[in-house]
Design brief:
Blueprint (H helix, E strand, L loop, with lengths): L1 H30 L25 E11 L17 E18 L2 E11 L16 E15 L2 E11 L18 E11 L6 E12 L12 E13 L2 E12 L15 E11 L9 E4 L2 E2 L7
Antiparallel strand pairs: 1-2, 2-3, 3-4, 4-5, 5-6, 6-7, 7-8, 8-9, 9-10, 10-11, 10-12
Length: about 300
């Protein structure tokens, strides 16, 4: 009798756990459209629009921590989904080619390896383990320089090289290909401790997700920033970001096609140690506000 009761209790607990997991996955699928991405150099704040000088080799390690406080619907109301703290990482390699000009611009190419998924926000239920996520390839980035003004444009391809299971988690990529176009400009004061301001835009178009046939809506993002070098090798600034889904996703089986909207404000600091020429350490702290269908 005791064995039967124990077996019945275990079966009930397993059923309850399965139901809870199904609800979490259903919430994530129905309420949270697949978010857009960042591109090459996005962690540099106000200097993101400056292409480094010819011959520059860039190796950048970035670590991202998401402290999820709540998930909201398309009215900004808390839906009660389980929250978590999620860590992600990326490793960037980039080179600006010597003596190469395209359309009068310097030419650069690069690749970013992501661990977990370097998206604007994670979905409910993501765990803490590190696994290879998307591989980000930028075959062409062009940079122009004219006195105190700098311009950059690039094309980036996001490739699904991580782990993915439809309806499962943790997933470390989206199991789809996406294309990103980037354009940015920066004006920098000619002074010992200059002010600088930048404006950049990203447009991303997604392909269809394998196994689900979901095509996420296109994403458009804007980021203005300004800052000042307050002392030799120390730069402080403020960055704002707005990312919106501009078209509805398709192919969602019974899901909610509502669009998402993300707004962020981020103070940041950059330190370039004089004893390590070419090196820099950057810190950004962001706060989301007035968001829809996201965190």
């Amino acid at each position: 009798m005791g064995v039967s009761a124990s077996a019945g209790l275990s079966a009930a607990l397993r059923a309850l756990a399965l139901l809870a997991g199904t609800l979490v996955c259903s919430i994530a699928t129905a309420q949270f459209p697949i978010a857009g991405n960042y591109g090459l150099g996005a962690g540099l704040g106000q200097t993101s629009a400056i292409l480094p000088p010819q011959g520059t080799r860039v190796i950048e390690n970035g670590w991202i921590n998401y402290d999820i406080q709540r998930y909201v619907d398309d009215n900004g109301n808390d839906i009660g989904a389980p929250t978590s703290t999620v860590n992600a990482a990326r490793l960037t390699f980039r080179y600006v080619f010597r003596d190469v000009k395209l359309l009068g611009a310097d030419y650069s190419a690069g690749v970013v390896l992501t661990y977990r998924n370097q998206v604007l926000r994670p979905e409910p239920g993501l765990g803490q383990g590190y696994h290879l996520g998307d591989t980000v390839v930028t075959p062409v980035a062009l940079g122009w320089h004219h006195e105190n003004w700098h311009f950059q444009t690039s094309y980036t391809l996001w490739t699904p090289t991580g782990e993915f299971e439809a309806g499962g988690y943790p997933n470390t990529d989206k199991r789809l290909w996406s294309h990103m176009l980037f354009a940015g400009t920066i004006g920098k004061q000619n002074a010992d401790l200059p002010w600088a301001a930048t404006f950049q835009a990203r447009c991303e178009k997604f392909g269809r997700q394998e196994t689900t046939d979901i095509r996420p809506g296109d994403v458009f993002s804007l980021e203005p920033a300004f800052g000042k070098e307050v002392a030799r090798a120390i730069n402080l600034g403020l960055l704002a970001a707005r990312s919106v889904q501009v078209s509805r996703k398709s192919g969602t089986p019974g899901g909610d096609p509502s669009k998402y909207e993300i707004n962020l404000v981020e103070p940041y600091g950059i330190w370039k140690p004089e004893g390590l020429p070419g090196a820099q350490i950057a810190l950004r702290l962001g706060k989301g506000f007035d968001n829809r269908n996201t965190t």
